[in-house]
Amino acid sequence: MLRIIFVSLLLLFYSIANSQDTIVVMHYNLLNYAAPTAYCDETNNNISGKNSNLRIITDYIKPDILSVNEISKLSSFYSQISDSVLNINGSSDYLRAQYSNGSNSDIINMVYYNKNKLVLHSQERIITSIRDINLYKFYSKMQDFSGNDTVFFTCISAHLKAGSTTADADERGQMTLLLMNHLNTHTSGNYLVMGDFNLYTNTETAFQNLTNYSNSSIRFYDPINKMGSWSDNSNYAICHTQSTHSTSNNCAASGGLDDRFDFILTSYPVLAGLNGVSYIPNSYKAVGQDGLHLNKSLTNGTNNSAPQNIINALYNMSDHLPVVLKLKLDANASDISEKPNDLFSINFFNSELTVFSNNSSFHNWNISIFNIAGQNLYANNTCFSSQNQSITISTKKFVSGIYFVKLNDNFGNLIVKKFFIY
User: Fold this and answer.
1) Nearest 5°: phi and psi at 312?
2) What are the CA-CA distances from residue 79 to residues 93, 201, 214, 292 (Å)?
3) DSSP letter at 229?
4) Nearest to 170 by CA among 161, 183, 158
5) Is residue 78 a contact partner of residue 108, using CB atoms and an 8 Å limit?
6) Burial bucket for residue 10 (CB in 10 Å: 0-12, 13-18, 19+)
7) Euclidean distance between the first and final Cα of the chain, in Å?
């Protein structure tokens, strides 16, 4: 009997371990990588030096997904990052997405990913007047022990129009509106949108399109919730990503770190961990940013946010800092969230939420309803004596917004986690 229990525990441990994974997502503007201009050339933006610095940075961060902006449209160079930076010393861990340049830009987006953890399922592009917006759908290679499906999520890479004029802001707004209108034709799910957005304040139309779109189920959220007028504002110094240089070398922007241009935003299911992909709290950061370098060069004085060789590599690589976050992937959680009808049905109609039992084995359970701020608005312990019973909850006092429902058994185990829009 003891041996049977021991083997069962081993199988349970294997099931849990094999159905969970952590991945690191990184976005980086590479500053005209192999895309020379009249002001950025081999003298002040040398490709060999950039490769060396990028190698140091990625070896330190070890991203499982690397999204980049401002890379050359020439195929020999966007392949060079996977061949000469990520896959070195006999490694072949990283693959890249397919080339996309429907907008006919001199600089493009690209994504690289760890093939040991992820598979690129498909990709799409949205053609704009400036640059493509690229959508990359991934799934994890892990599976739960029962052989159920894995988890899917989509990374969106965008490089919005630069500039501080009204026309520039209008262009940015048009680009994000195209993206949100595209997503509006899809169901809500696990999405991240990342890139150099060239934004100065959260009130700008481009940012409002992303975070306050009319269809609230596909809105994006800032994991660190740093809303405000970011530009040259000491209150947001910890999230400024541009510029690493205080003086110009005729390529990198000057003025020191004073703008939050680079972002990774998540959909609500990722932020709340509803569909098997969840943001790991406090994992978001601008690499190399200590919050003490407003209007200063990254290398000015002491910077203890990273080892000195990393600070130097960041300074020499680009005038932007990379942003990173971590995600937890859980195939078991995905199976529960995406297939709740195996256990319970949760229906919302006419200001009433009905929870319907499909399985008589769940006799003791409790239901909780939370708002987006994590406030518990409803809690109730319920007993089902048989299958096909239900409980109806009035939501008339709820304000418009996103809510999620949690059902736990009498041991505290999560049974269902599902969100609804009111």
Assistant:
1) -65, -40
2) 14, 35, 39, 36
3) B
4) 161
5) yes
6) exposed
7) 51
* H or E element, residue 59: helix 47-61
Query: 356: number of CA atoms within 13 Å, CB side?
Result: 10
Q: Give how far Cα 9 sits from Cα of 4, 145, 176, 189, 414, Å.
A: 9, 13, 49, 33, 19
Tell me the two tokens of residue 19. Answer: 């159905």
Render each residue's pLDDT in the chain as its tens digit; 422 residues.
444 333 333 333 344 445 679 999 999 999 999 999 999 999 999 999 999 999 999 999 999 999 999 999 988 888 889 998 999 888 899 999 999 999 999 999 999 999 999 999 999 999 999 999 999 999 998 754 444 467 899 999 999 999 999 999 999 999 999 999 999 998 778 999 999 999 999 999 999 999 999 998 899 999 999 999 999 999 999 999 999 999 989 999 999 999 999 999 999 889 988 888 999 999 999 999 999 999 999 999 999 999 999 999 999 999 999 999 999 998 766 443 433 444 566 776 677 877 776 655 555 667 888 776 667 888 876 665 555 567 788 888 888 777 778 777 665 556 666 666 66
Distance between CA atoms of 29 and 261, rounded to whole angstroms?
10
Q: What are phi and psi of 372, to 5 degrees?
A: -65, -20
Give the single-character DSSP code of 83.
I
310: helix, coil or strand? helix
Residues 328-350 as b/e (b if ≥16 CB within 10 A, e otherwise) read bbbbbbbbbbbebeebbebebee
Is residue 367 within 8 A of residue 380, CB to CB? The reply is: yes
H/E stretch holding 198 reads: none
Structure tokens at 103: 């907008």
